[in-house]
Amino acid sequence: MHFEEPLRLSSGASLRGYDLCYETYGRLNAGRSNAVLVCHALNASHHVAGVYLDEQGQPMPRSEGWWDNMVGPGKPLDTDRFFVIGVNNLGSCFGSTGPMHRNPETGEIYGADFPVVTVEDWVHSQARLLERLGIEQLAAVMGGSLGGMQALSWTLQYPERVRHAVVVASAPNLTAENIAFNEVARRAIVTDPDFHGGHFYRHGVLPKRGLRIARMIGHITYLSDDVMNEKFGRQLRDAVQAAAYKYSTQEVEFQIESYLRHQGDKFAEYFDANTYLLITRALDYFDPAGACGGDLALALEPVKAQFLLVSFTTDWRFSPARSRELLKAMLDVRLDVSYAEIDAPHGHDAFLLDDARYMSVVRTYFERMKS
Amino acid sequence: MHFEEPLRLSSGASLRGYDLCYETYGRLNAGRSNAVLVCHALNASHHVAGVYLDEQGQPMPRSEGWWDNMVGPGKPLDTDRFFVIGVNNLGSCFGSTGPMHRNPETGEIYGADFPVVTVEDWVHSQARLLERLGIEQLAAVMGGSLGGMQALSWTLQYPERVRHAVVVASAPNLTAENIAFNEVARRAIVTDPDFHGGHFYRHGVLPKRGLRIARMIGHITYLSDDVMNEKFGRQLRDAVQAAAYKYSTQEVEFQIESYLRHQGDKFAEYFDANTYLLITRALDYFDPAGACGGDLALALEPVKAQFLLVSFTTDWRFSPARSRELLKAMLDVRLDVSYAEIDAPHGHDAFLLDDARYMSVVRTYFERMKS
Predict the structure, then answer these.
(1) Which of A283, B114, B132, B232 has the fewest CB atoms in 10 Å of its CB?
(2) Cα separation of B158 and B170, whole Å?
(3) CB A208, CB A313: distance < 8 Å
């Protein structure tokens, strides 16, 4: 969807002539009352569910949507009943206008000049998309992690336009440690000699070293210590017998090293470095209580939506304690909120994985929802 | 102290013509029975206690030993009673033979060719130093973190030569997550274009970008989430008013970013990149239970020393659970072990800080010790 009217951003800058990539699943009902917006986290996109077909009509390998276990016919967010919309955020690198595109005002690729966007800006742009689609009110907005922040922001910015919010593995803001991990990742990218101040496109290079490091750091924080020990432990990669070390500092020695390098290499092939900076900064900045002197309950005063909050016991990136902060503030202002703390071993990644109790909680919440 | 006889390493390689830097505090008694060896962790040295004086006899600024709060006259490890030895490990960059020195066999600077050294190798080299000093048996060996691993290794390799071991904030081996953080740090260094395969000395450059990232990652894991929130929280660096964001991805915005960059910059000025690789690998490799099929109690069978184990509640790098693993295995084989789990907010760093309960536990342990 192309938007010609400028979008005024939180920073004061404006973005004009931008596109938003989106996908929809299911059918909008006659009353236009069954729409559910799904917001994505760091490295996902508008492609929430389903698979793409090739020219022969065969499913393309590895083309499943990032929340395909959650969204689809008969799934917890049932597209036989709900009209689901996935939208790629501004500044991303999967189709919506971002740093890899040309600035219509200068004709140059944005690169590092793409304006800083916030969670609030994304929500604003999503609201415009829904207006174009003729949807005045969402049955629900849903997201995990950074997507959950967008869902929360929807209920704050557009209290009349959203009846329910499902906020999974999220937080009301980042802690100092969260910001610290983001900053290390950004420094790795920015200090890569191939970054060229963010204008690497002009130089025909990509700051892959930095992106690899950023992704490796990210991956550690997505997994729990327990699940890492279970999956990899201290297993060596190539050893024929136990404890047959190679005695090398640079070669891969342990399975976990091999896994992380592989994840880093894959990511550096497809993800845009400027997008990484923008998205981690949007995470850093999100802090709805900030404008209310840190009083989250006060910040939630305008909210009218009902909530489902979900957290996972082993998530140390956005721990259950952060969801409980949200829960407490919501109860303080008499919001209708359900909270499920799921005992799952997978850390932050759990929000993307199949867990029977998690899926069942979300399914029940949507089943009870009027549409 | 210069050693001419070759040191056979765990890897099968040999190191010859090496030096060990050491300092001593207090006096060896007539029975040579009051010696305590203090082993250092990642970025420390033989300079455990006291300050250096300039030519005018004035204390030099910032020259305090790294455990000066623990070791000295009247301190928990009391140098009025004990003869304390600090030794810089092989492969380090603070005086003992390491990658910055010349290989006597080739005349070239070792760089990446410095052989991989293990905790066991360090202990072996320390044992040789003690032989030269005429110390047949240690009253105690003591260390925190990686230093604690050396203390544990002493009791395994030289059961007759150590009466007590004080193992603080340590672990019987690294978890997959510990190894993962080490690996990201190593990749940041090795992929820095200024690393030149570890032979950067020849090129007149230093891989500072990589070292900065490595140190930033390390720092996050040394601190607890709580203490980071207390010290830095979401405070902005330069904002005149709250929430006055700069909307920049590359400038310092939060206090925690400024702190981490500063720590990274400082470290990159003085620490050797090859040393960082070597020391993190020694951490990865340490696993005394490995040779016993993972049975830590079985590995501890030869041990005769008495132990004090100390852990800190908010240490998530070497959590109390890891010390309790050690404790359980020691109890299983009927070792004499005391364990203190200190409720401290500072994370892994707590082992270097003043905490009244921690200091008191260590003081009492040494007070009761025969010398």
Answers:
(1) B132
(2) 19
(3) no
Question: Does B129 contact A at CB distance below 8 Å?
Answer: no
CA distance A274 to B249: 9
d(CA A215, CA A261): 9
ipTM of the modeled complex: 0.95
Q: List the catalytic residue out of B46, B96, B348, B349.
A: B348
Q: How far apart are CA B197 and CA B277, in angstroms?
A: 12
Residue of B nearest to A209 (CA): B191
For an interface test with A, the pick among B15, B182, B183, B263 (most A C-beta atoms closer than 10 Å) comes out as: B183
Classified as helix, coil or strand, B137 is coil
Residue A238: the pLDDT is 76
Interval A21-50: pLDDT, tens: 999 999 999 999 999 999 999 989 999 999
- Going by C-beta distance under 8 Å and a sequence separation of 6 or more, which residues neighbour residue B7? B14, B15, B16, B18, B90, B121, B124, B125, B128
Where is B138: in which H helix or E strand?
strand B138-144
Which B-chain residues 99-128 have CB contacts (< 8 A) with chain A? 112, 115-116
How close, in Å, is residue B94 to chain A by CA atoms?
20
* Chain B CB within 8 Å of residue A181 CB: yes
Let me know: does B217 contact B245? Beta carbons within 8 Å: no
Of B127, B117, B124, the residue nearest B90 (C-alpha): B117
**What would the pLDDT profile of A126-163 be if each residue is shown by its tens digit?**
999 999 999 999 999 999 999 999 999 999 999 999 99
Buried b (16+ CB within 10 A) or exposed e, B284-300: bbbbbbbeeeeebeebb
Q: What is the pTM for the complete model shown? A: 0.96
Angle, helix A176-190 to helix B208-222, in steps of 10 degrees? 170
Chain B CA closest to residue A248: B116
Given its phi and psi angles, is residue A62 left (phi above 0), alpha (psi -120 to 50 degrees) or beta?
left
Question: Is A336 part of the contact surface with chain B (CB cutoff 8 Å)?
Answer: no
